Amino acid sequence: MDDLGSLGSGEKAALVILAFLQADCRTSAYGEELLSLGKDFNLTRDVHSPGDLLEDGDLETDGHVTSCITAALSDMQPSVELQWPRNHAEAADLQQIAEGLREIADQLERRVVAEATLNLSRNISASPSEEWKDHLAWEVDRVMKSGVGLEHLPQERVIAALTLTLVKGVCEQTPRLLRTLFNAVLQYFNPETAR
């Protein structure tokens, strides 16, 4: 799916996908799978490593202020974060893409996602993982053909948001499917980047 060409490399696509999937994580098992997946793809880093914190609470080069507040809040923050590109403009662009996809997904969820998620979950549970990408593509195509009422938005973004919403819905119910579906999405978006 070359429609997300602005993402360029597979690593950038994986980063946007993971950022999308991490938003509003509702279950701890799903959250643990996301953290593990991020580590395996080298898309996360430990935010509490000694090299990231400065003793005097100064401003770091990435714009974060460190102080005793960081330590006090550490139990409320995840222990890892996504590794966005060092180029702040590029990182902001990728974050904006992920946020835009989440906004579209919110509109989709209110309209059609529950039924499509159930269909996808049923189809992948009855078939080998090599066919999951095809099931995912078929369900996205079916929903898009039925009309989602978002014709005013760029359709490649609607397709991406729908795809990621379906994957998130299935994986929130069955977290162990995350890795295989993540790879299916990478292959669906850009076949030469799948791992």
TrEMBL record:
It is found in: Cytoplasm; Mitochondrion outer membrane. Keywords: Apoptosis, Cytoplasm, Membrane, Mitochondrion, Mitochondrion outer membrane. This is BH3-interacting domain death agonist. It comes from Liparis tanakae (Tanaka's snailfish). Pfam families: BID. GO terms for biological process: apoptotic mitochondrial changes; positive regulation of extrinsic apoptotic signaling pathway; positive regulation of intrinsic apoptotic signaling pathway; positive regulation of release of cytochrome c from mitochondria. Its main location: cytoplasm. It comes from the Eukaryota. GO terms for cellular component: cytosol; mitochondrial outer membrane. InterPro entries: Bcl-2-like_sf, BID.
